[in-house]
Design brief:
Elements: E1 2-3, E2 6-7, H1 8-39, H2 46-64, H3 68-89, H4 99-121, E3 137-139, E4 144-146, H5 147-169, H6 171-181, H7 183-188, H8 193-215, H9 227-240, H10 245-265, H11 273-284
Antiparallel strand pairs: 1-2, 3-4
């Protein structure tokens, strides 16, 4: 069976790849949106923190013999804790300054982290085997679905929607949003706003690390893996709307699918289609699809 002269198996295969890429776009842009929306910091170190997640899984496996499932639990906590240190020692000094200072600081941190890992491990990608429970695949009739890739899509969507629910529909999320608008008022109610801000940044960093662990069995673990992805993820955040949680989720998955379809119908544009869309969106709606006009 063909659609527009293209075998359906080939089209569905590219859509699956696009959906997998979209899963990582959504997770990473979600972390960026949480940090920017609640802290007003443009975290350019997000790609490096994603890379730290992948390397954390690799090191736990090769140094301590702890596999994928343990890494999913341990690595986000460890990398998130480094985020707490960064926020308390560096970013806290920049909140009253222009956004550019936070971008420059986190960009510098990203270069330092990537350089240290490149010096230690080189530029060659390192393999990371997927867990035995998620190996193999399922024949759906019109395509073959690898089990691990299906797990990544479901897990990413679940985490994204759970985060959106906490931020937008719970009392804790209400406190977080209020703290960004009027921290003095929130603190007057006995809430420790600095601690809340620190934990929020740590959570955003932990999301990046979690994405890194999930990406390790699909993409090779390398120091440059975050740098190759962060520009696309920033484009996703801009299209969805800076600070918009739902915008990050919908745009991340949607642009992944669009990228996959572009590889089918016009492969030459697959690496630029997201930036073309970003340009169009910024011309029509500068605040992004889900952003708030100010």
């Amino acid at each position: 069976m063909e659609i527009f002269g293209i075998p359906i198996q080939a089209m569905m295969g590219q859509l699956l790849i696009g959906l997998i890429n979209g899963s990582f776009y959504a997770l990473l842009s979600l972390g960026l949106a949480v940090i920017f929306g609640l802290l007003n910091i443009i975290n350019f170190a997000h790609g490096a923190q994603y890379m730290l997640g992948a390397f954390g899984a690799y090191l736990l496996l090769n140094k301590l013999g702890l596999g994928y499932w343990w890494s999913l639990l341990i690595v986000p906590i460890i990398v998130g804790a480094t985020g707490l240190v960064i926020e308390r020692t560096m970013l806290v000094r920049l909140y009253k300054l222009d956004h550019l200072y936070g971008l420059l600081l986190t960009f510098g941190l990203a270069l330092i982290i990537e350089g240290l890992f490149r010096n230690e491990f080189g530029s060659t990608g390192l393999p990371y085997s997927m867990p035995s429970q998620l190996q193999g695949g399922t024949n759906l009739g019109f395509m073959f679905l690898p089990i691990y890739r299906g797990w990544v899509i479901i897990a990413s969507l679940t985490i994204c929607l759970a985060t959106w629910f906490v931020v937008e529909r719970t009392k804790l999320g209400g406190y977080l949003r209020a703290a960004t608008e009027n921290p003095q008022l929130v603190q007057a109610f006995g809430i420790n706003v600095p601690r809340m801000i620190t934990l929020t940044y740590g959570f955003g960093v932990a999301l990046a690390a979690l994405a890194g662990v999930m990406a390790a069995p699909i993409y090779q673990v390398s120091p440059g893996m975050g740098a190759n992805l962060i520009i696309v993820v920033f484009a996703v955040v801009v299209i969805g709307g800076m600070g918009s949680i739902m915008g990050a989720i919908v745009t991340g998955f949607g642009l992944g699918l669009i990228e996959g379809l572009t590889k089918v119908f016009y492969p030459e544009a697959s690496t630029t289609v997201i930036f073309i869309i970003m340009t169009i969106v910024l011309l029509i709606r500068p605040a992004g699809l889900f952003g708030t006009q100010k």
